[in-house]
């Protein structure tokens, strides 16, 4: 069970989704593959919807099927500018984030508002993701379009302390950066 200060996913609501996205979110590989194979072209596969849903709901095996078998583009964003990596980070699905990184997902991706992956991890209070991203070379001093760093948007607690410590370990203060 995750700590109370970590965001958790609300229950899945399949209303108004194509069955491929529903199967991806639910982790039903057999129905997913059958549905993909029965549709010659389905935007839920080609436009990344199924991959984003699988990443968001922690369906690692579905992510692997979509990437390996169907070569779904990794970095196509949803209407909010979040790609599959953003959603995996938001929800704390490190195994999926690691797989997407290994598959070639853009680790320097920014949303239309200029949020980095570290901004997303900070906002959604995901300490394990913050540490992993920092270990992968994420810039703790990166600013979004409004000049806001990940430290500036995280809530008081473990993530805020972690980001403060990471900034300090870089040997400079935010003002010097």
Note down, in words, how this protein is organized:
The chain is mainly α. It is 50% helix and 0% strand. α5 (60-68) packs parallel to α7 and α8 (117-123) runs antiparallel to α9 (127-135). The longest helix is centred in the C-terminal third of the chain and has 12 residues, at 158-169. The mean pLDDT is 87.
Task: Please sum up the structure shown.
The protein has 177 residues and is mostly helical. Helices cover 50% and strands 0% of the residues.
Task: Detail the topology: elements first, then pairings.
Blueprint: H1 19-26, H2 29-38, H3 43-46, H4 49-56, H5 60-68, H6 84-91, H7 94-103, H8 117-123, H9 127-135, H10 150-153, H11 158-169
Key attributes of the depicted protein:
mainly alpha
Quaternary form:
single chain
Spatial separation of the terminal alpha carbons? 38 Å
Spans where pLDDT lies below 50 across 5 or more residues:
none
* Average of pLDDT: 87
Strand content: under 5%
């Amino acid at each position: 069970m995750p700590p109370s200060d970590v965001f958790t996913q609300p229950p899945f609501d399949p209303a108004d989704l194509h069955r491929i996205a529903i199967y991806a979110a639910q982790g039903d590989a057999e129905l997913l593959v059958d549905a993909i194979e029965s549709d010659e072209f389905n935007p839920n596969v080609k436009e990344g919807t199924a991959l984003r849903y699988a990443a968001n709901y922690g369906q690692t095996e579905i992510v692997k099927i979509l990437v390996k078998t169907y070569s779904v583009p990794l970095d196509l964003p949803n209407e909010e500018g979040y790609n599959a990596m953003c959603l995996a980070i938001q929800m704390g699905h490190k195994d999926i984030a690691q797989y997407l990184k290994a598959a070639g997902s853009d680790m320097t991706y920014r949303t239309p508002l200029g949020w980095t992956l570290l901004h997303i991890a900070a906002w959604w209070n995901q300490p394990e993701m913050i540490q992993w991203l920092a270990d992968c070379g994420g810039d703790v001093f990166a600013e979004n379009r409004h000049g806001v760093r990940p430290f500036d948007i995280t809530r008081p607690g473990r993530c805020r302390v972690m980001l403060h410590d990471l900034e300090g370990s870089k040997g400079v203060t935010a003002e010097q950066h």
